[in-house]
Design a protein that fits this description.
By secondary structure, the chain is mainly alpha-helical. The longest helix is centred in the N-terminal third of the chain and has 33 residues.
């Protein structure tokens, strides 16, 4: 399954080229602290977190649950969908909770402080937050239990690639036929314009479009933002200083956008 690790890497390289070719013009640039947070995020998400997941699935779980390896008979398609759909459903609710809880918002706020959103912002997070995402919390266990872990982790690799895609700053409408295709796919999947809306600087924008792979959850639970297109501006008000965002987010004051996000987000 080692080849699965190269799928997100290939997606990253392709999206960098896509932004160079079809990138949207944004007035802001990433500063030195932005690059420090972005690159640390890619190091954690690209190496540290996968290593932790691998050790859990290949060492800790076999030692703790030796009789439960590959006991859930889902087959290739079922194991793939367990990751791509069910884990995505869990992420939707975790993401909503990150915006509703003042304490969790402090951990998540770093991801929203970027005044420019592109593929580099994908892994922008406080160092602690990388270990709290549902992907690390449940993927090793579910991948250990299913009869086709290769299919399950293929779903994880596709999810990681789509994470990069939805953060990419792409004017794909410049490609003939792409806008029409995007209108169709956008009814089911989270496209860049939808996720960029979630990164918008207005209070109403940060309170919706919580899905990762599928926009279906936002449609079902009333958090899909109306309209379309990219936001006019990015970032949150009164964001903590960069070092607080990266190293000790829980000691930083919550950004001013959190109470508004909680106020505007629909009740489940």
């Amino acid at each position: 399954m080692d080849w699965l690790l190269y799928i997100p890497l290939l997606a990253f390289l392709l999206l960098l080229g896509g932004e160079a070719w079809l990138g949207r013009r944004q007035p802001n640039r990433h500063g030195p602290w932005d690059w420090a947070i972005h690159l640390s995020g890619f190091a954690f998400q690209g190496a540290v977190i996968p290593a932790c997941g691998y050790l859990l699935a290949s060492r800790a779980l076999p030692a703790a649950l030796p009789d439960f390896a590959n006991v859930v008979p889902l087959g290739w398609v079922g194991a793939f969908l367990l990751n791509f759909v069910f884990v995505d459903f869990l992420f939707y609710w975790q993401h909503r909770l990150f915006h509703r809880s003042p304490g969790l918002w402090k951990l998540h706020c770093c991801h929203h402080t970027a005044a420019r959103v592109d593929v580099w912002v994908t892994s922008r997070n406080s160092l602690l937050t990388h270990f709290l995402f549902v992907y690390l919390l449940v993927n090793p266990l579910l991948g250990y239990l299913v009869d086709r872990p290769d299919a399950f982790f293929a779903g994880a690799a596709l999810t990681a690639s789509l994470d990069l895609f939805r953060h990419a700053s792409l004017d794909y409408g410049r490609v003939p036929g792409a806008a029409r295709l995007a209108a169709i796919l956008g009814q089911v999947f989270v496209l860049p314009s939808a996720h960029h809306r979630h990164h918008g600087s207005s209070e109403s924008e940060v309170a919706g479009n919580f899905g990762a792979n599928l926009i279906v959850w936002d449609r079902l639970f009333g958090t899909r933002l109306p309209g379309g297109g990219y936001p006019d501006a990015y970032g949150v008000k009164d964001s903590p200083d960069p070092l607080s965002q990266l190293i000790y987010p829980l000691k930083a004051p919550a950004g001013a956008s959190h109470p508004a996000a909680a106020k505007h987000a629909p009740e489940p």
